[in-house]
């Protein structure tokens, strides 16, 4: 079935199945009752990243409690995306945007990568995961991406799975046509790496170019902000290589 984008969606931790009745967590109950102002008989879509999407009917609304009965499954569970999205953290407001857009564009796992020019070396993983969930709720996504703990670029490359090709956005890439480079990667497991605001250092670029499992692509003649580059790169890779839910 197609997603019903007119109905509110809510991510829950609980198992979902036919005949299930559940109480929402306190913060979600507050959101449904006081922000959305939903009442008995209202319907909402629920998903947990495991059991597909379910249409639920609100059975009771109290001060801090909302009880929901599941009516039917609206969509079966989809497999997680295979795309590993690696990014250098940026300032908080724009980082929220970057994470949300990465989820919308099909990232399956998000990996913060600390580089020499990274502006924000300390991250709140819980905050990033909350942004992932919010984006999944809004965009009809069923498989919720996971945010990994930050890793230094050198460590990431040392432990890299060489069966997965790493695409990194390099403004000085030797090939002026990113499509040509990306077409050679069709059918392969891939990951995408977008650097920090200051770009990769020269030593980092040399390290990346020296690895056999790394492909450098340009994003055009303009210097892009990191969050803009993220969206542009994800759109380009998806257009050429295809979706990652296979």
TrEMBL record:
EC number: 2.1.1.193
Catalytic activity, reaction form: uridine(1498) in 16S rRNA + S-adenosyl-L-methionine = N(3)-methyluridine(1498) in 16S rRNA + S-adenosyl-L-homocysteine + H(+)
InterPro entries: Alpha/beta_knot_MTases, PUA-like_sf, RsmE, RsmE_MTase_dom, RsmE_PUA-like, tRNA_m1G_MTases_N
Pfam families (alphabetical): Methyltrans_RNA, PUA_4
GO molecular function: rRNA (uridine-N3-)-methyltransferase activity
Any one annotated GO CC term: cytoplasm
Biological process according to GO: rRNA base methylation
Keyword Magnesium: no
Domain of life the protein comes from: Bacteria
Main subcellular location of this protein, as a coarse class: cytoplasm
Annotated ranges, domain Ribosomal RNA small subunit methyltransferase E PUA-like: 26-69
Record keywords: Cytoplasm, Methyltransferase, rRNA processing, S-adenosyl-L-methionine, Transferase
Location of this chain's protein in the cell: Cytoplasm
SUPFAM superfamilies: alpha/beta knot, PUA domain-like
Main function: Specifically methylates the N3 position of the uracil ring of uridine 1498 (m3U1498) in 16S rRNA. Acts on the fully assembled 30S ribosomal subunit.
Record-stated family: Belongs to the RNA methyltransferase RsmE family.
Descriptive protein name: Ribosomal RNA small subunit methyltransferase E
Source organism of this protein record: Nitratireductor basaltis
High-level lineage: Bacteria, Pseudomonadati, Pseudomonadota, Alphaproteobacteria, Hyphomicrobiales
